[in-house]
Amino acid sequence: MTKKTDILVVGAGPAGLVCAMTARRYYPEKKIIVMNNTEKGVVPCGIPYMFASLASPDENKMGTTALEAKGIEAIIDQAEKIDRDKKTAETKNGDTYNYEKLILATGSFPIMPPIPGVDKEGVYPIHKNMDFLKKTVENIKKAKNVLIVGGGFIGVEFADELSQFQGLNVCLVEMLPDILTNSFDPEFSSLAKDKLKAKGVNILTNIRVEEFVGDKKVEEVRLSNGEKIPVDAVILGIGALPNTELAVNTGLDIGRGKGIWVDEYMRSSDPDIFAVGDCATKRDFYTRKNTPVMLASTATAEARIAGANLYQLKVVRENKGTIAIYSTYVDGLVLGSAGLTEETAEKEGFEIVVGCAEGMDKHPAAMPDAKKIKVKLIFSKQSGIIMGGQVAGGMSAGEMINIIGMAIQQRVSFSELETLQMATHPYLTSAPTMYPLVLAAQDVNNI
Where are the domains of the chain? Predict the structure, then answer.
């Protein structure tokens, strides 16, 4: 069957949904169809919390109700072939869709490391599929020894979540010298490590997994230090790769970072095909180098740019690059990072100065539930422009890193941060006289 639409979105993850909703606002007269290859999608960021924090894995489902309320048609099918000349997409169900504008939001797939035994039962990559994840949750809850491979955000959040189960031995293996290395300097990543260790998580760094041992099911893991440890289940939290198969078969250009090449407005090498989210290439905000950042927050920002500019460049809202803004939560500790770390900035050859400050997130410090907050800001030495920042503390740190992210995007100087005007309240924020962002900027000024 042949069907016609104005805008076809392939993929219904965060990028696909937001792109469709944005397109509806800017082009209300256009017909929009969103195609998803699975009926039961999940909220990506909520996957680690399907084990304990959520009452049921089903509470982490991602639906299409919001689309339908805006007159956007949602279908379950999979695009398998695109004809750019005819502007058609052929699907697994045998249908053909004519489009004016096509948005590829095909996401990513988990990395499967070339480790012997990785295909054994009990080894779980993180697929964004509800049925698969529900089975994973069910099986891991029966385990006694769980190994998590990878000490990035995914691995750390899984370790924190699983450490809540009494009698479950949780071990995390990271081949780099520390956990969260790509996003935090050592004085911040060590805070997360201390939290996990206090909850009984065994953390092994500078060690690789050499083999998953067992008959059909994994029974133990052989490590690069010669040690063998018993395991009932393994979670692979080592990242993902852009899902570009459809784009490659269509003849679209692929960037050096292996994602679909896009310009500042998320247009691919075909002007009528856009790419957003994990499948699209990412370029660093400062160096313009390809960067493997895959975040729902980044994906939705790209989706809003694409959705607004499908037919004309209505909004001068170009993608200036990926600032890599993250936040995570480990047993009450909130960690946030945006832009370059001190280590990354120095490795790239930037001449920098660093400002640090500590304080309390409420005032006075005796207020109920007041938490210590720690801030580190990285600035260009010559221009004084902010290049990165890290925050650790209570819940307020989750929004403070967003302030830093905005400052990076707007290229704010330390003198502007020093004179930041902020709303404060004893229950809500640090004292206006001791506001950590201001103090960190002043620390740089003193230098």
Answer: 2-108+241-308, 123-238, 332-446
CB distance 187 to 181 below 8 Å? no
**Could you tell me if 84 and 273 are in contact, meaning their C-beta atoms sit under 8 angstroms apart?**
yes
CB 60 within 8 A of CB 47: yes
CATH superfamily of 123-238: FAD/NAD(P)-binding domain (3.50.50.60)
In the numeric block, the tokens 């909850």 are attached to 199
Report the distance separating Cα 342 and Cα 50, nearest Å.
34
What do you get for the CA distance between the two ends of the chain, in Å? 69
Q: Which residue has the tokens 């109700």?
A: 65
Q: Which helix (H) or strand (E) holds 327?
A: strand 326-330
Residue among 172, 170, 168 nearest 151 (CA): 172
In what side-by-side order are the strands of the sheet with 79-83? 2-4, 96-98, 88-91, 79-83
Q: 2-108+241-308 adopts what CATH topology? A: FAD/NAD(P)-binding domain (3.50.50)
Superfamily assignment of 332-446 in CATH? Answer: FAD/NAD-linked reductase, C-terminal dimerisation domain (3.30.390.30)
For residue 32, give Cα distances in angstroms to 25, 35, 124. 11, 10, 35
The confidence score (pLDDT) of residue 290 equals 87
CB atoms near residue 170 (< 10 Å): 24
Give the pLDDT confidence of 58-115 residue by residue, as tens digits: 999 988 888 988 999 999 999 999 999 999 999 999 999 999 999 999 999 999 999 9
CA distance 358 to 275: 41
Give pLDDT tens digits for 344-369: 999 999 999 999 999 999 999 999 99
Secondary structure class of 57 (helix, strand, coil): helix
Element of type H or E holding 342: helix 342-347
pTM above 0.70?
A: yes
Q: Give the other-Cβ count within 10 Å of 59's Cβ.
A: 12
How many residues in the chain?
447
CB 124, CB 233: distance < 8 Å: yes
Q: Encode pLDDT of 142-178 as tens digits.
A: 999 999 999 999 999 999 999 999 899 999 999 999 9
Tokens of 287: 């160096």
CATH fold match for the domains 2-108+241-308 and 123-238: yes
pLDDT digits (tens, 9 = 90+) for 174-212: 999 999 998 999 999 999 999 999 999 999 999 999 999
Residue 15 confidence (pLDDT): 96
The token duo for 34 is 């969103």
